[in-house]
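Re: beginner question about structure tokens

> Can someone show what the tokenized structure looks like for a real chain? I only ever see the sequence side.

Sure, here's an example I had lying around. Input first:
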Amino acid sequence: MNLDAFAGETLDAIRERGTYRRMRVLGGAQAARMEVDGKSVALFAGSNYLDLAHHPALVEASAQASRDYGCAAGGSRLINGNLDLHEALECELADFLGTEAALAFNTGYMANVGVIPALVGRGDILVSDELNHASIIDGARLSQATVRVFPHGDVEALDRVLAECADQSGRTLLVVDGVYSMDGDLAPLAGMVESARRHGAMVMLDDAHGTFTLGEKGRGSAEHLDVEEGVDVLVGTLGKSLGSFGAFAAGSALLRDLLVNVARSFIFSCALAPPQVAASRAALEVVRDEPGRRWQLQCNAARLRARLAAAGVSTDPSCSQIVPVQIGGNARTMRICEGLLERGFYAQGIRHPSVPEGTARLRITLMASHREQEIDAFVDALCDLLAEHPPEAAAAPKA
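And the corresponding structure tokens:
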């Protein structure tokens, strides 16, 4: 079978099961309003949570770095790509997060597939929440460690698993997300960290959606839940709340040195481009100077959840700026998604197999710059569409 025949056969099967994906075309700067497939809409489907992607300070910093450094680092960090900009960003990240050191990666995916195999390998154990991000799952596979999965957010089940691991040789690493990307709930970190410490396990927290949006200082889920000292490795992103691009791992100076020497996704990648690094540094300053952005973000999320709850629409278990509305079937979910677009709103439908079968949902994400009237109008449109497209009747049992 040639490549095109294989691709066509595979795509036909994907269409048959109703999970075919296509990329929508967005126009304009990332903001609360954009063009989606040529139509101006209110955007409720992004991760530019603090609306920094087009902030004048970031744009100017990026442009100035382009003029001063050019558009590329020119190589890997261990050869010729380690610019003073990279070192400055990492020092500023560590200072902001209250850690000894930080190391930048090109993406959050690359951070997880680099950090996890650096910490555990064959003969070790990785303990993972069942709803952890795909990049954590892939990092675990690459590590060749034995993987133990526990039910989502179940501290008692986690404690049993860690107790069993404590009797075995090798290292044990607990990896969890801070804010879960499909449901918007927070990991019960207090109990998890306490259990890990009691059983001698290292703790790695992927807080891509919590860093810079939660906590008094914006340090994320661990600060919000007062467990910062119990986290050994914090992984976060520069491409969501900071409005730039890239990711980081933060922790001790020894951790940074270890990753520089053994994290393959860091060693064998070209360094982040200077304009992106400069934009991230500018974003950190804005986050320090304007804490009201994360406060407004969470107020907007609370308003959306409250308005939907008043209309009888559940958003459980969300307690963050990620707000799911579970629809059920793939087809109904996408009909409502398309209906929202027609009414001037974009909230992406997430279908099986990205989520368990029968739990397809709209994944609504808020921004600090959404206005109250936009949120209220979105709720009204969504409620109308839910009524227009009722759940499909269950098939009658066979005689």
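Each token stands for a local structural state, so reading them left to right follows the chain. The longest strand covers residues 322-328.
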